[in-house]
Amino acid sequence: MKQKIIIFIMMSVIIISLIYFINSVDDSNVSGYQDVEYLIGMSHPNLTDEWQIVIHEELEEYSQGYDQIKMIFTNAGSSSYKQINDIDKLLEYGIDLLIITVNDANVLGPIIDEVEKKIPVIVLDKDIGFNDYTLFIGPDYNSVGQMGAERLKDLTGEDMINIVTLNGPIEDPMVTEISKGFSDRVNRELNMNITENIYCGWLRTEAQKEFELFMQSNQEFDVVFAQSNALAIGAGNILKEHGMDVPIITVSKFMEDKYLTYLDIGELDTIIYTPVGGKEAIDYAMEILESNRTNLHIPKRIVMKSFSVTKQNKSIYTESMERRQTLDVGYIQTHLYNEENLSMTIDNDIQVVNNAYENIGFRYYDIDEDQSAREKDQLQKHYFMELLNQGVDIIFFSPENSFGWEELTKLAKSKNTYVVCLGNPLEYEDTNVIYIGPDYIDQGIRLSQYLINNVYNIHYDIGILEVTGDLNTRLTVEKSSSFRQQISGYSRINIIDSIEGYQGHYQQEELPKQMLQLKEKMKQSFTKYSNDINVVYLHQDYYINPLKEVIKELNPDQDIVVISNNDSGIANKDSELDYQVYPDSLYKDQIIMLLDYFMGRTQIPIEKIYLPNAGY
Fold it and tell me: Mean pLDDT, to the nearest integer, of 240-267?
């Protein structure tokens, strides 16, 4: 017992000393950094949070691999006001780049907007939404919550279960996202019921206090879902006192031996492991600094993949990884979005990578452009199966259709094959599926913001004709849903009509017919709704040609504002387009980065790589 007390006191002294050191940064601490090539500031929201300690240790460890950088750390102690002051202090020290995990996205978002105008900002762990920054690296906390709910299905099958959730502070956006993902998934199951949602601070002692109060209510429950290790252990301690053995699922940013032991002895059933991304933050910080923010070839957002770790599969995450000696890559070529851009870029990238990595072999399938959309979808699935039978390690392709891939991706997972989707995400997601491409949700938000900020005060009522892409693609769904969600709060903005266009993947001889059919649909909509339409939202910029013909023929009395998505990666200079959002074409660099990962490890900690969007 005495030995445990001594160890506890020693650990407490170390943590308090660390927090004191980071809080006591002053001019004397940074005076020795004047000759350093790059000075990076890291603003922590709260270093009593075990997750932030892990982030701090990762950044320190990986930054030591670069002689030309030094780091300054600050700790806001859960105060947004202090974090703002910390940022000001770091700027006074002359930092060249800021890495930050925000205490409150609503408060810090506008501050980061201003900092980004001066120096690059990498947002780590917690996203800040529509605010501006150079790069975000972190997990999708909504999907983390969903993974927790998925584990419940494995635990209970069809049996009825009652669940208690033990969450962090209710005002924390991360807590909200995990809770939403978990509850949304649970609510789809008839045999799952959330008995109680408990909210508390992140400390084990706070969790114990709140969980004990809950236990006094004598409610029945079968499983606990906790949002951190400390909360899980706190709940476990109370359960032991009451002589109860209940499965606990927890969320963790690290895989320390003691938590793996908890899995072995059954005190924890599952750890939803969410990698921090400290290495990626340092590597990208160096790339940003050395480029001087010009000709940057980095994505906008990197979503780290989370993993469900149990006693049965934990060896996958704990065994030392050996570098691969060879890599077998499958690639299915399509011309889904822009013949002259995406497919040519990918083809060139494959050659660049092939020359750079002699130990990487490629198996290549081409799909003739003179195929119907249905034929291309069937061929993709046929070639996908061929590549699986050949035992490739990775398959790169642009899905013609987002739907109908669940069984094939599950089969790929069983064969330890990763699936990398370029430009169009699959409807079905799994731990072996990675997406590289535009952030279509962000595009929808940007287009809606343009209407709200630039058109809303000019037209009393805004009536929109939405011309969608192929409804069988997830990109179309994401564009439309995010746009509609943003305008839903404005009573004077309404979608009058919605018609389906085409995706540019028909046989060449069919394109004039598709163009003519789309023109006829537009004409019918304008005729039916007469003067109600004053905005047209195009999901593809090349829809502008039939639209111009319709406007010329009908000559409507009102001016028509035209906004558009543009998937080509190059701004469309057509003067009839009032505003468009298009992605930066950076596929080559992201493919090379992924191949580096694949050569170095078995588990790939990246789920999605979103390219930066630009407006024109």
Answer: 87
